[in-house]
Amino acid sequence: MPREIGEAAISRGYRSGFVGLIGKPNVGKSTLLNALLGRKVSITSPRPQTTRTRILGILTRPDAQVIFLDSPGWHKPQHPLGRSMVAAARDVMEEADVLVAILDVTSGITQEDEWVFDEVRKAKRPALLAINKVDAVNKGRALPLIEQAAATGLFAEHIPVSAAHGDNLDVLMAQLLARLPEGPRWYEPEQVTDQTTEQLIQEFIREQVLVATRQEVPHAVGVLLEGVTHKDRAVVIQAVILVEREGQKAIVIGRRGQMLKHIGTEARKELERLLGKKVFLELWVKVAKDWRSDASLLRQLGYHAKGIR
Ligand SMILES: Nc1nc2c(ncn2[C@@H]2O[C@H](COP(=O)(O)OP(=O)(O)OP(=O)(O)O)[C@@H](O)[C@H]2O)c(=O)[nH]1
Ligand SMILES: [Mg+2]
Prior knowledge:
309 residues; alpha/beta; Rossmann fold; GMP Synthetase, Chain A, domain 3; six-stranded mixed beta sheet; three-stranded mixed beta sheet; 21% strand; globular; binds guanosine-5'-triphosphate; binds magnesium ion
């Protein structure tokens, strides 16, 4: 009977859908994803263009399954890797049921943010705006940004948050849930990401290189896994840090190997947390000239093929 079917559907009332996190580089998209999940699935660093691919993070609740899509920061690409990153960000905008655009309150609304707004305009789907890093400024600094963003008419809500401190994330989450369509649970409740353990290991190592280095070096770094051997109580990991030039290699190794040692120690700690086992980590540094423009190496490193020619 139609009435009963109708009631059954309403009492089910389960919501699920894809939520795209978008914004210019370094605004805190990945920090926000990890905070919303309560788990680290996407690496973060003070360097712009940290995230290079679409990163999926799944939050399963009794009433909903929210599938977050973290994306590379929106920018004007300079090489095939950059193009692949922007292609991944564009895919996120197309796949998402709901978009969350993120602004950094400390930088105000810049031209790069305007590009993101343009993309939101073209995407034509429900969008929220999160104004992040409010912990870093005086109260009230978000207000002019909210007014400016509200004038675009693009966003249903403008929510000041601190991803790093967890402030106001409940408000953001409630607004998100209200905009998700009704739907099934797409993923098993235990699953938090679609990345393999190997991909996570690669990324966790790259994160520590980004945190430890400056200027052009972070952008020129890629990590290739050579071996992962799981033993009873330990995991043995061998990885190569790729850079583009001899000078960068010298920086990553550091004087008497100090820098590489530091990176290895920090990465090992993070990997032990991730894997819940003791980790033995062996790192090498290799020069692969202009690897960011080398299609086969880009594929080997797992980057989105669309922007790569
Ligand atoms: N003070 C403050 N810093 C934050 C906050 N959220 C993120 N950050 C910092 O901002 C920097 C960038 O954070 P990410 O999460 O890597 O930014 P992203 O937008 O994912 O950057 P890309 O992947 O490069 O596009 C890091 O140093 C974070 O610790 C916040 O709420 N407050
Ligand atoms: Mg990121």
